Structure formats: structure tokens, C-alpha cells
From TrEMBL, chains A, B:
One of its GO terms (molecular function) is oxidoreductase activity, acting on the CH-CH group of donors, NAD or NADP as acceptor. The keyword Oxidoreductase applies. Gene3D superfamilies: Medium-chain alcohol dehydrogenases, catalytic domain, NAD(P)-binding Rossmann-like Domain. Transmembrane segments: none annotated. This is Alcohol dehydrogenase. It comes from Gallaecimonas xiamenensis 3-C-1. Pfam families: ADH_N_2 (PF16884), ADH_zinc_N (PF00107). Keywords: Oxidoreductase. Residues 15-329 form the Enoyl reductase (ER) domain.
Amino acid sequence: MSHYHAVKLVRRPEKALDASLFEKVSLPIPEPAEGQLLVRQSHMSLDPAMIGWMSADTESYIPPVALGEVMRSSGVGEVVASRHPDFAVGERVMGMFGWTQYALSSGAGITKIDAALPAEMVLSVLALPGLTATQGLLRLGKPKAGETLVVTGAAGSVGSLVGQLAKAEGLRVIGVVGSEDKAQWVVDTLGFDGAINYKTDDLAAKLAELTPNGVDLFFENTGGPIQQHIFGRMNAHGRIIVCGLIADYLSDTPAPGPSWLNIIKKRLTIQGFTMPDHWHEIPELIATLLPYVQSGKLQYRAHVLEGLDAAMEGLPLLVNGGNQGKLMVAL
Amino acid sequence: MSHYHAVKLVRRPEKALDASLFEKVSLPIPEPAEGQLLVRQSHMSLDPAMIGWMSADTESYIPPVALGEVMRSSGVGEVVASRHPDFAVGERVMGMFGWTQYALSSGAGITKIDAALPAEMVLSVLALPGLTATQGLLRLGKPKAGETLVVTGAAGSVGSLVGQLAKAEGLRVIGVVGSEDKAQWVVDTLGFDGAINYKTDDLAAKLAELTPNGVDLFFENTGGPIQQHIFGRMNAHGRIIVCGLIADYLSDTPAPGPSWLNIIKKRLTIQGFTMPDHWHEIPELIATLLPYVQSGKLQYRAHVLEGLDAAMEGLPLLVNGGNQGKLMVAL
């Protein structure tokens, strides 16, 4: 009987995200029971939401990963054995397989994916990042041509797609990033109208210069001091979509939000969302997103790490912004 | 030619709201030109929104009252002369007539009101407070039977109607008030399920005791420290309607809002609104509200001051909570 590797969460993160939180185990490759399929994962995705899943905070929108459980993540793989009527050996599937080389599944929550698409593109665009951008920007944000969008974490997996979808819809798009390289990428390659480096720019001055007509849509992926500045430039009837607050997830004292006065003065709507509420809508979300993908309008940049061990080492990049594009692990 | 009195705003408020901000003038009673009507006002309304209208803050949702202009307010009165095809002498009308005994009008923004209804009831229920509660609670908040609502400023003109409309819809309703008298009134007379005295109660403990199933709807009229506590008890998919922040309007340093983490964790929607955006919907709002009025479900308490001069003296009550019910001036 041959074996495979998986990585379990064994400790809750406090400050540092390092290998001490995990334990790598070797397990016998199982046989699917009636109604099950076995997937060999080729690529697994590393997403900022995982930081939340690792913490024991019971207030979160999804139960934390239990200690001793295989770390949760999404990924793509190939069906290598099946006793499930809907899945055949050789098919490409996407699902929440976790940090593992092999996974048994009942088929629930699994989506078939055209095997011709590059795995990097599937995880960068059609998987969680693209579905998140579609739900948050297109469905909740209701962007209108001529409006101005500011997106934080703009070079990130979600932010880069949010900005590109907004450009496709005819908006002025300003991205907030953490390096000159990322600033250049979102402007030169993705076609954003401007970028703010939150680490080096004078935030108020640069934001005012780049949003001469104020801000109609604010897509928040990060938190941090830029939040107050963008909030202060919101136009009447502005919409704020709160998708991520990576700066606050591991903080003992999350930053206070802005005064609510502007919510009245500008009649703002602030809306938080998370994708687990929308799993059942994935087919519609994919249908909404697919035309943008097929038109070739959506660029992506994949940051591919190699091998299961690299996942543990790659996690901190999600917090310190060290990744260059959508972070994933090739197995 | 006989004369009437009006009161003009001549100074912007800084800290105190007193008579030094105003000037009373005597003016000749005008004749309506073609297309105009002349209204003799019987009752004018004092509303918290007026504090905002008096300040020069250009970010507000409605232009400030200009210095030297008659102070803005809504009221009811009788048509005493008309050269307008739609209005006849003797009809009862409601509109933004200002602090004045007589007002000329083009008819724009004026609503006819059944002359059989008591003026106190018109200004307490059918005018701004009732329309605000209808728009904010029923349209934006989408209350569902069995949910829990917390409303701040619960004994106020808007808050008392919000709570009663929510009770009529089958919600558990907790009101935040600033005195024992008000606490007793909202529970005993209005039928709320509980009240919190923000001046004397242990906010966290009392709120937890009164909202055992958390909070689904938060109707915010006041701001202040209770905001953070209610925000912390919001349930998944909770809705927060921001209608007023009286504690912050005159503050140099408005209180920061709560951290946005809960907006994601609980997938909250926070929505600010002001009635000037909805003037054109007043007929529909009245139609929505009228069945509740006619069913006798909506109690009100009018705090009636006498005479134009009393308006200047009554204004501080809106800030310090000294009014006992909907504040208005009988002329």
C-alpha cells in the first residue's frame, strides 16, 4: 500500500505564522467507498482567508480548522478513482481538498473544471479570487461606468481581479499596493489608472491627486491607515465592500473604524461578505465571470511554490505582502 | 398692512445652542403672486436634523441655512391666500415653512393633510419622524418577525416610531434611552420588550441580558458609547441603519467607529440615509405608514412649546434629551 503526505494544523497562530503550527504526516492512500471519489491534487491555493480559519475565534463566519485536522485550502486535482456516479477517473475537479496530496470526497462542494485550462489560471481567476471579485464588486458594488473605484490589496489575488473587472465596466480604478513593483504592475500590465504605495506615499495627497472626483466604490481587502483616508473621500451614495482586513486579523487591538458621521452625510452603504455564504451560487458566479475570462480581459500573475512543505513557508507571504501574484503550491 | 414675525439664523453654532444665534424680525405679510400660496403656520417642528442644517459644514447632505436666512424647519399650517391652481384657501398643508408665522410657497414640496387630524399627531407621526422611521426601518432594515431590534434615542420622535413599527412587525424591541421616565414610557406605554438607560446602566451587562439571541437590526439615532456594545452583539447578516448621531454632530472630535472586523465576520450591512433623498417618495411613504396609524398601533407624545420665541429656547432640548416626546412649537 502506498502512502501520501498531508499537513495538519496542530497549534493556533499567535503572532508568527511558521512551520511550528503544523505537522506533516504520512498516510496510506485510501480507496473510495461507494459514493466517494479520490482526488490527486495538483495545485493548492494559499489565500488570506486561511489566517482566519486557523484562529480559534468562534465569532468567525466559518468554523476554525480543528487542531489535528488537515489544514483547509482549496485546490485543483484529478479524479484518480471513483465510485461516484457523477465523477469519472481523469476528470479535473476543484474543491476544498486541504493541504494534502490525496483527498477522499463525497462530491459535495466540488466543481468540474475544463482540463484544458492551466491550473495556475484556474486558481488565480476562476477559483476563490475570481468568485470573490465577482460577488463583491459586480453583485454587491454595482459599479457604473464613469465612477471611481479604489481597491486595497490591489496586486493581490482578489484586488487585481476587482480592478480589472471595474476597468472592463468603464470605471476609473486606483489601486493601493505595498511596493513599487506592484504599483507598476497594476498600472502598466493591468491598466489601472493609478496606484498608491501605502508604505511610501503621502496617503492623503496621493489619494486626492488620483481621485479628483472623489470615490464612489471602495473595495477593502486590507485595512490599515489608508482606510480612513479613502473613507473620507467617499462621494454621496458611495458603496464600501469589506472583503478582507488582513492588517487586523492577527492584531490584539484591531484599529477602530472611521467615525460613522460620513455614513449619514454621504448616505453610504458598507457591506461585508464572505464566500462561504455563496457556495451554492458558484455556478451563477462562474457564468458571470466567464465572459470576462474569455474576452482575455483578465490578466493574472501566479506565484507558484513547489511541494507541500513550501505551503508552511509560504503562508507568511500573505501577511507581509511578499508574494508576487496569486500564491499557490504545485504538488 | 399688517406684519408677522420670523426668526433668522445669524450666527453658526459652536458649542451652545442659544438665542444669540438668531434674530427675530418683523416683516409685512406678503400677497401671493400668480402661482403662489400664502400659508399661516400653526405648528412648527423642532428636529435633531436642524442642528446639522445650522452648521456651515459643506459636507452635509443638504446645504446649510445661510446666515441671514429664516431658520429651516417643517410645519403645518392653513392656506390663507392662494393664486395656485392646486391649493384653496382653508386647506391644511405640511411643508418646510421655516421659523415663521407666515410663508409664501410655490407649492413645491408641500403636502395636503386631512384637517381633521390633530396637528400634534401630524408632526409627531405623519411628518418627518414617521417618514424617517418608515424609510429607515421598513424599507432599508427589512425587519422580520422574531428578529431582535435595538434602537437608540428610543423615546425620541423617530426612535419611538421605529420601535412601535418593529413591534407591529413581530420583532423583539429593546430601546436605549437617557432617563428612567423614558425607559418606563417605552416599555409600559409603547410596549417595547426592554429599555437600557445609557446614563446609569451597565451597558454591556444590560444589553446582553435584554438581547439573549443577539441583535439582528440596529437603528442608530444617537451615537455614543452604546454604539460599540450593540455593534459587538450583531448577529450574522445583521443590518445597521444609521439615521442620526446626535452625540457627534457638535463634537470637534467625533468618536471613532468600531473596528470593521465584525463587518466581515458577521457579514453586516451598514446603511446611512437622510430624508432629503426621499422627498419625491413621500406619497408612497405615507401610504406605507398610514395603515399603522389607522390601526391605532402608533402612540406618540408631543412636547409642545408656545410661541416663536420658544423655538430658540427649545433647541437645546434636542441635544440634551430634555424633551418629553416630539418637540414642536405652537404659533
